[in-house]
Design goal:
This protein is α/β, with parallel strands linked by helices. It has ten helices and 13 strands. The chain folds into two domains: about 5-170, 3-Layer(aba) Sandwich (Peroxisomal Thiolase, Chain A, domain 1), CATH 3.40.47; about 180-190 and about 215-330, 3-Layer(aba) Sandwich (Peroxisomal Thiolase, Chain A, domain 1). A five-stranded mixed beta sheet has the order 1-7-6-4-5, sandwiched between helices. The structure holds coenzyme A.
């Protein structure tokens, strides 16, 4: 029988600085009413300028290791859209700072689907015998790539990190990742994009005149992204449920990517899941992209929503376009 990846620990971290809708309304043409009614977001956390994605990843990763009661992992995977540097990857330095030794470490770039992709990658490494224990971290500092002139993205995206420890175990154990569904559609890459800073348009972040070119900022076409997010997350979730053999009504908690509460409710409606079975923490943390799913899991755990034995369905959607889903039965763990 193949080796399963089993959830053994969970840790989360958000930077201390809270940015409310009112704070944003003072800086740009928006309002608390618009942001709440169109997205469900009331506040978010943005890191101080001296804090990078790797710093948040170390905090969340350390908490996940503590939650798992181990310091012994042999692979670190960091999912992020906002790495510390274009080169090298963020994961090796995070592993070094956590004192994990000369372990394998790499990043995954799948934007808001990054954490689901990273869990699938870690599960593959465990199944193949490449690793026995993996630290999977989703971490972001979107505040670094948001265009302060773009109210459509500035009100949505935010900073934070979440991490899990996955260990080798039996597919029948609580906490085992039961299946994975991953997909992409690169024909729509321009819907969510940072145009410059890569090999197509290499450029420094700041020009000689001291201004930052708009192409170095994150850009999103909100309306089509909304439609694709609903369609893809619903279809991927259904594929996953079929693979696992669960009906939508038997799912205790839907932990979807925290992009917009209207997207989460539309996915729940399409699946035939009760809306009150949807975990929502975006009201307090905004859209934290690759950190979104573990932050939502951690929030649900800390609010006492998750009971051992609960059926958890996770689904994400993001730039690429990319999407993915996985599921597990909630194990006995103490989240950090
Ligand atoms: N404050 C006030 N008004 C705003 C605004 C803001 N922050 N952002 C946009 N608007 C305005 C627009 O300019 C537009 O004005 P107009 O009608 O005069 O042209 C109006 O509000 C409606 O904009 P629109 O983009 O059509 O709104 P929407 O209902 O589609 O909501 C999003 C915009 C971004 C919230 C929504 O499209 C969305 O959530 N998309 C998915 C985004 C996401 O979560 N992506 C991550 C997935 S990985």
């Amino acid at each position: 029988m193949s080796r399963a990846a089993v959830l053994a620990g969970l840790g989360t971290y958000v930077p201390r600085r809270v940015v409310t809708n009112e704070d944003l309304a003072r800086a740009m043409d928006t309002s608390d009413e618009w942001i709440r009614s169109r997205t469900g977001i009331a506040q978010r956390h943005w890191a101080q300028p001296d804090t990078a994605t790797g710093d948040l990843a170390v905090e969340a990763g350390g908490r996940a290791l503590k939650s798992a009661g181990t310091h012994d992992v042999d692979l670190v995977v960091v999912a992020t859209t906002t790495p510390d540097h274009p080169c090298p990857a963020t994961a090796p330095h995070v592993a070094h700072r956590l004192g994990l030794g000369p372990v394998a470490a790499y990043d995954i770039a799948a934007v808001c689907s990054g954490f689901v992709y990273a869990m699938a990658s870690a599960a593959g490494a465990i199944a193949a015998g490449i690793a026995d224990r993996v630290l999977v971290i989703g971490a972001e500092t979107y505040s670094r790539i948001l265009n302060p002139e773009d109210r459509a993205t500035s009100v949505i995206f935010a900073d934070g990190a979440g991490a899990v420890v996955l260990r080798a175990g039996e597919p029948s154990e609580p906490g085992a990742l039961l299946a994975h569904d991953l997909g992409s559609d690169g024909s729509l890459k321009d819907l969510i994009i940072v145009p410059a800073g890569g090999s197509r348009q290499p450029t420094g972040a700041v020009t000689a005149s001291g201004t930052r070119p708009a192409e170095t900022y994150f850009h999103m076409e909100g309306k089509p992204v909304f439609r694709h997010a609903v369609t893809r997350m619903a279809a991927s979730s259904q594929t996953l449920l079929d693979r696992v053999g669960w009906t939508p009504k038997s799912v205790d908690w839907f932990v979807g990517h925290q992009a917009n509460v209207r997207i989460l409710h539309a996915v729940a409606d399409q699946l035939g899941l009760a809306r009150d079975r949807t975990v929502v923490n975006l009201d307090r943390v905004g859209n934290t992209s690759a950190a979104s799913i573990p932050l939502a899991l951690g929030d649900a755990a800390s609010r006492g929503l998750l009971t051992p034995g609960d059926r958890i369905l996770m689904s994400a959607f993001g730039g690429g376009l990319t999407w993915g889903s996985t599921a597990l039965v909630w194990p006995e763990i103490v989240a950090g």
